[in-house]
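Below is how a single chain appears once it has passed through the pipeline. First comes the sequence as given, then the structure the pipeline wrote out for it. We keep one example in the README because the format questions we get most often are answered faster by looking than by reading.
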Amino acid sequence: MPEPRGPASVTADSVPAIAGFSSAVRVGLTVHLSGQVALDSAARLVGPGDLRTQARQSLGNVIRLVRAARGLPGDVVKLTFHVVELDSSRARTIQEVAREVFTEQPAPAVTVVGVSSLPAPALLVSVDGIAVLRGEFPDRERQGAQ
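Resulting structure:
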């Protein structure tokens, strides 16, 4: 399948789209993922008041979008978490969840940023990222993962 020459939107049925925003954009083998939050496929908040649950759901949405772009979780190379009321405990929670979800090595580069709020008051975390779709190339290590 030839690669698109310009940017192409990436969507996944299980990830709610927010009007006026792209969930992800693919350019060649690179996918730029916009801030994913803890909404399920029906756009309902998952884990009200629970940072760990919201982080897992947000990362799940990232992975669903990467898969929709024909990638695998191991293709994610960079993540930026925006965490409401960030402190050392919340930073540790984010690190733990990221390690649980992304077990391949090397793990994605992670940045954690504190914010005063997110667009909806109940949201505690948003995560954006970048994936490089290595699955387009022969790779013996990845053949079993697909």
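DSSP finds three helices and six strands in the chain.

See the next section for the split statistics.
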